[in-house]
Design brief:
By secondary structure, the chain is an alpha/beta fold. The protein has a domain of 228 residues: 3-Layer(aba) Sandwich (Rossmann fold). 40% of the residues lie in helices and 16% in strands. It contains ten helices and twelve strands. Strands 1, 6, 7, 8, 9, 10, 11 and 12 form an eight-stranded mixed beta sheet that branches. The protein is elongated and about 125 Å long. The termini are far apart.
C-alpha cells in the first residue's frame, strides 16, 4: 500500500522513511537532554569548588557565651561523650550551642576574692600575652573580672582589651636603689612590644604634670610601639639626670626637663586616664601623691576617682603597682580595691 501527500507538490514519503525520521528526532532529544544534564552538573561542581570548598577548609569559628551563675549543675558526661565533644569541636558541625551549654554549666560560681598583696624579689618578672578570666573584689561587685585579659604589666593582668599604662616619672623614681627604674622601663618595653596588632593602648607619664604619648588611644603596630618606647625613654628621670650631669647643668628636679620630674600628681594622671576611656588602667608609682594646696592628698585622689567612676555607665578597673618604696602603699591598695583592680607590691 502506498501513501501519497494531499499536496500535489509534495513528494512521496515511505513509512520506513517516516520511522527513520522519528527515531532520529528521539535520538536528538536524548542527546540534547544528556548535554543539558552534563552542563548543569558541571556548573554545580564549579560552584562547589568556588564557594563550598574554601568554606570547608576554613577552621570553624565557635562562639560560646559564658554566663557565670551562682549555682551551676554540671551534666554528668561519660568519657566517650567528652571525647566525642572534643573531636567535633574542631569540625564545622552544629555543636557550638551544646558546647556553650557545657561551658556555662561548668563555669565556676562567683567567689569573693580579696585583693592580695604580692611581694616580688629582685628577679625578672614574666610578661606577655595571656588569656583568662580575672577575679577581683571591689566597690562595683564581686566575682569574675570584666573582659578577657590579653596582656600584663609587672605581674598585673589586664581585665580588658584596651589598656592605659600610667607610669610615675617623679625624681624619687631615679633615686631608687640599684637603678630600679631601669627595670620599669624594660618591663614597659616588653609589655608594649607584646601587644597584639591593633590593640588600643595609651601611655601616660606623670610627675608634676602628665605627658601623654597620644591624646587618644592608639592601635598598636610595630612602628607605633617603638615610638611609644622612645617617648618613654625621653622622659626617663634617671637618664635625664645623668645627661644633665654630663652637660654640667643643674639636676634640680624642679628645673630638669621643664620641671616634669618635680612632683607626683596622681590626681592628674587619673583624670587623663579616664578621658582615654580604656577597658583597664594600670598605674605604677613609688609613693604617695603630692598635690600642692591639698591637705589630705590620698583621700582627695580616692574621692576624685570615685567621682570619675560615678559619671560612667561602665566602671573602669584600676590596678595599681606599688614600686619598691612602702610609702603610700596603703593608699595604693585602697585605690585598687575600690576600683575592681589588682594590687601588686614590688619590693
Amino acid at each position: 500500500m502506498q501513501a501519497y501527500a494531499t499536496d500535489m507538490n509534495s513528494e512521496y514519503i515511505s513509512p520506513e522513511a517516516l520511522d527513520a525520521v522519528a527515531r532520529k528526532q528521539r535520538r536528538d532529544r536524548r542527546i540534547a537532554l544528556t548535554l543539558t544534564v552534563v552542563a548543569h552538573a558541571a556548573l554545580l561542581v564549579l560552584f562547589g569548588l568556588v564557594t563550598v570548598l574554601p568554606a570547608l577548609q576554613r577552621e570553624p569559628e565557635i562562639r560560646a557565651t559564658v554566663v557565670v551563675q551562682e549555682t551551676a549543675e554540671a551534666p554528668r558526661l561519660s568519657r566517650q561523650e567528652v571525647s566525642r565533644m572534643h573531636s567535633r569541636a574542631v569540625q564545622p558541625a552544629a555543636d557550638s550551642a551544646r558546647l556553650a551549654q557545657l561551658i556555662q554549666a561548668h563555669a565556676p560560681a562567683p567567689i569573693a576574692a580579696p585583693v592580695v598583696e604580692q611581694t616580688f624579689v629582685d628577679a625578672p618578672v614574666g610578661l606577655g600575652a595571656a588569656t583568662g578570666l580575672g577575679l577581683g573584689r571591689g566597690a562595683f561587685g564581686q566575682g569574675a573580672g570584666a573582659g578577657v585579659g590579653r596582656h600584663s604589666f609587672m605581674g598585673v593582668q589586664a581585665q580588658g582589651r584596651s589598656i592605659v599604662l600610667a607610669i610615675d616619672i617623679s625624681g624619687s623614681m631615679a633615686n631608687l636603689r640599684d637603678r630600679a627604674y631601669e627595670r620599669v622601663e624594660e618591663e614597659a618595653k616588653k609589655t608594649l612590644r607584646e601587644l597584639p596588632q591593633g590593640t588600643p593602648f595609651g601611655l601616660l607619664l606623670f610627675g608634676s604634670e602628665v605627658v601623654a604619648f597620644r591624646d587618644a588611644l592608639a592601635a598598636a603596630n610595630p612602628a607605633l610601639v617603638e615610638e611609644a618606647i622612645e617617648f618613654l625613654l625621653e622622659y626617663s628621670p634617671l637618664r635625664n639626670r645623668e645627661e644633665a650631669r654630663e652637660r654640667g647643668e643643674s639636676t634640680n628636679w624642679r628645673r630638669l626637663k621643664g620641671g616634669v620630674h618635680g612632683g607626683t600628681r596622681t590626681d592628674l594622671v587619673m583624670e587623663q586616664a579616664f578621658k582615654l576611656n580604656p577597658e583597664t588602667i594600670i598605674m605604677l608609682s613609688d609613693g604617695k601623691p603630692h598635690i600642692p594646696g591639698v591637705r589630705n592628698e590620698e583621700e582627695h585622689v580616692l574621692e576624685l576617682v570615685r567621682d570619675l567612676q560615678r559619671r560612667r555607665s561602665r566602671p573602669i578597673p584600676v590596678s595599681v603597682i606599688s614600686y619598691v618604696l612602702k610609702s603610700g602603699r596603703e593608699f595604693m591598695r585602697d585605690l585598687a580595691e575600690q576600683n575592681d583592680g589588682q594590687f601588686v607590691a614590688v619590693d
